[in-house]
Every structure is written in C-alpha cells, then in structure tokens.
Write a structure and sequence with these properties.
The protein is of the alpha/beta class. The chain folds into two domains: 195 residues, Spore Coat Polysaccharide Biosynthesis Protein SpsA, Chain A; 90 residues, no CATH class. The protein contains 13 helices and eleven strands. Strands 1, 2, 3, 4, 5, 6, 9, 10 and 11 form a nine-stranded mixed beta sheet that branches. The protein has a two-stranded parallel sheet with strand order 7-8. It is globular, with a radius of gyration of 20 Å. It starts with a helix and ends with a helix.
Length: 336
C-alpha cells in the first residue's frame, strides 16, 4: 500500500452526553503536527448539544484541512454499534478510534502513523496512555496472583481470565495481543474483514479487546503499541452506567468473551474460575477489613458481584452458545 494513502487517516469518536470532554479531545486533534483526513463524531447522546457543538467547530477544522463530520447513531445505543457506523462512513486508509475523554499529545497522529510505514506487516497500532508514575505495587501484585488486570514492563497480553496486562513502563514499540478502545487504529483493509461485535451493547465492556484479539489471532504479530504516540485518558465520570448495571455487564460479557475467544482447555478454565473467585475474595476482604471506609458502597458492590455471578451461572448454557440477549434486553429496556 502506498505511503501517501497511509497518510489518509480517519478519526472516529463515539460520544454520549460529554460535550465538555469532547471539546478537549477535539482541541487536541486540530493542533496535530500531522492532520487526519477527517474526524467523524458518532453521536449516541440525548438532545442536540453534540450536533450543535460539531457544527460550530466545522469551520475551524476546515481551515486546517480536516473534514469534521457528524453522524447520529440510529441503531440503538451501543459503543460497538457506534464504532461500526463510523467504519461504514470513514474514507481514510487508516482508521483511528478515540474515546471522547482522551487528550492527545500534538505529535500523536504523526508518531502513530509512522509505525504503519516503518513496520512491515503492521495491521494495527495504539499509542501509550500516560499512567501515574507511582502505581500501587501491592495491588498490582495481588492482581497478578488472581490473573486480574495489571501492569508489567513491555507486555500487552490477554490473560485466560479475560483480563489484560498493560505495558508500564513501555520503553520501545512492541507487539501486543490487544488494543485499547480509548485509542486503537487499524488498516481499512483489516476492518473489511473484521467488525466490532454488536452483541456488546451500551458501554460495551471488552468490545475493544474482543476485536483486536480476534485480529491478532488471525494475523499473529501484526498489532503494536508505541511509546512515542502519547495521550492522556481522563476516564470521565460523566454519563457512566450505574454501578449495578456496570458490574453485571462486566461479568456477563467476561463469560461471553471467555467462551468465544479463549481456548477451552483445563488450564484456561481453572485460571478463569480462580480469577472470578479471587476477585470475589478481594472485594470481600476490602469490605471485611476496612468496614469504616464507605461501608454501604462496598456492601452494595459485593452484593452486585454475587448477583452477577448468579446470573452468569443461571444463563451459562446461553452464554456458551454466544447468546447474551437475556442480558441485553434488560439493559436496553432500562433508562440508565
């Protein structure tokens, strides 16, 4: 593929009721040292604030040679669906997905796109999220012991538990097994073969890992993360799902991901079950040994987690068959 085509980058940003966060994100895009061809805002929001915001910024982006386009997602509120709508309307040869609450370093796009032209066989690239220098070492060690999410030097893996490792520190561009939804990019040719799984609804927890992991298995060694394309992920607390719905979603979709993507051998099954038990013990211990710290909130979290496990066990047969409609119908009928 010619290098000049690879410079045609489409940025897709799904958004939901986050005008202020989106404003900061867009400001970081318009000042990039290498401009994208276009930015598509795929809107799941209520009302017209986001549409009016995008229309107001169209001239500014146009002066920089960037087409700023607004799309309303009409196929049901879902991050996975919104991303697919963006793919269907994007024109660039590289498609970059961003969360609406990220802020890019001004050379992010330039350094990201350079990997495509300098690394043969590269199908996908993500930048590096700037983490706090001082991470909780004890928590990271505990997470390792139960195969939960943790950081490790120069490693970006998907664990049999369906949890992930994130490279910190990251010293050089490395191959990885998954790309983060906050900033992940692919060649258009790859996205003609793969789409986001629309069984993931609303917040669509793990839709990013699901897509990238499938691509990585089909084309081993073709996904990369580079420390040179830096960004901040603010993880906005606006428009988040309520704790109960989010906890249930994480567990149902975790079981779904496991049976869909992880080899069903005895070792992996044991790791998956141990991770679920270990996480339950971790949540329980926080409640038992620190009862003076927001007791009611911790008790609710423990109760929700037990309830989520019960639902997964009850509908285990359906989940194994790739059917999560029992859960999706409930969250789609909810106003939360």
């Amino acid at each position: 593929m010619a290098e000049d085509n690879l410079e045609e980058i489409s940025v897709i940003i799904p958004t939901y009721n986050r005008v202020e966060d989106l404003e900061s994100c867009l400001k970081s895009i318009v000042v990039q040292t290498r401009k994208p061809k276009e930015v598509l805002i795929v809107d799941d929001s209520e009302g017209d604030k986001t549409r009016l915001q995008v229309e107001a910024k169209g001239e500014e982006f146009g002066e920089e040679g960037i087409a700023l386009r607004y799309l309303r997602n009409t196929r049901g509120r879902s991050l996975a669906v919104a991303r697919n709508e963006g793919i269907n309307n994007a024109q660039g040869e590289i498609i970059l997905f961003l969360d609406d609450d990220v802020i890019l370093n001004e050379d992010y796009v330039e350094n990201l796109s350079d990997i495509y032209t300098s690394v043969p066989g590269c199908n996908g690239v993500q930048g590096h999220i700037l983490l706090k220098d001082k991470l909780n070492g004890f928590y990271n060690l505990m997470s390792r012991s139960i195969f939960y999410n943790y950081v490790e030097k120069n490693s970006c893996r998907v664990l049999p538990s369906t949890c992930i490792t994130y490279p910190h520190p990251l010293e050089t561009t490395i191959k990885c097994e998954w790309l983060a939804g906050s900033n992940q990019s692919y060649r258009r040719s790859v996205l003609k073969e793969f789409n986001f799984d629309e069984n993931f609804r609303r917040y669509s927890w793990r839709e990013d890992v699901d897509l990238s992991y499938r691509i990585g298995k089909r084309y081993p060694g073709s996904l990369y993360i580079t420390p040179h394309a830096k960004l901040v992920h603010n993880i906005s607390d606006k428009a988040r799902m309520p704790d109960k719905a989010l906890i249930y979603m994480k567990e149902v979709y975790s079981f779904y991901f496991f049976f869909k993507n992880i080899d069903q051998n005895p070792k992996n099954k044991m790791i998956f079950m141990w991770s679920k038990l270990g996480f339950l013990l971790q949540v329980s211990s926080i409640f038992l040994f620190r009862p003076d710290k927001d007791t009611q909130s911790k008790l609710r979290r423990l109760r929700y987690l037990l309830g989520a496990y019960a639902v997964c066990i009850r509908y285990l047969k359906e989940i194994k068959q790739g059917d999560v409609e029992f859960f999706n119908r409930k969250i789609e009928s909810s106003n939360t």
